[in-house]
């Protein structure tokens, strides 16, 4: 069996591709975005819509960087929590005796 670390290192584990928000409004918001995008596409000239798409792309790149930083920060926080819990493990066990 492969370890999680090996899979992550070898590119077989891609958390960003596996994540699917479970918030009840997520899919509805996606449909609203698609509908509004289509409305703007019909309203604007090709060049104007291309510029709007460039704005969307920049916003997406910016959000991707934020999401990456949030993932890394969350991972570090989780790892630090485990370190703290494990470093106090004996103390906790001794308290119950």
Describe the structure.
With 97 residues, the protein is mainly α. The protein has one domain. 79% of the residues lie in helices and 0% in strands. It is built from five helices and no strands. The longest helix has 42 residues.
Features:
97 residues, mainly alpha, 5 helices, 79% helix, 0% strand
Question: What can be said about this structure in brief?
Answer:
The protein has 97 residues and is mainly α.
Number of helices: 5
Q: What characterizes the major β-sheet? A: none
From the helix content, strand content and strand pairing, which structural class follows?
mainly alpha
How many domains?
1
Between the first and last Cα atoms, what is the distance in angstroms? 38 Å
Helix content: over 70%
Proportion of residues in extended strands:
under 5%
Order of SSEs, N→C? Answer: HHHHH
Rg calculated over all Cα atoms? 22 Å
Low-confidence stretches: none
Shape: elongated
Residue-averaged pLDDT: 89
Topology, number of strands = 0
């Amino acid at each position: 069996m492969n370890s999680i670390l090996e899979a992550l290192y070898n590119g077989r584990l891609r958390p960003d591709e596996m994540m699917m928000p479970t918030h009840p409004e997520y899919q509805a918001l996606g449909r609203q975005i698609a509908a509004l995008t289509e409305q703007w596409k019909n309203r604007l000239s090709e060049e104007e819509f291309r510029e709007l798409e460039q704005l969307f792309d920049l916003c997406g790149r910016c959000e991707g960087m934020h999401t990456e930083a949030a993932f890394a920060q969350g991972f570090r926080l989780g790892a630090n929590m485990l370190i703290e819990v494990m470093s106090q493990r004996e103390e906790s066990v001794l308290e119950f005796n």
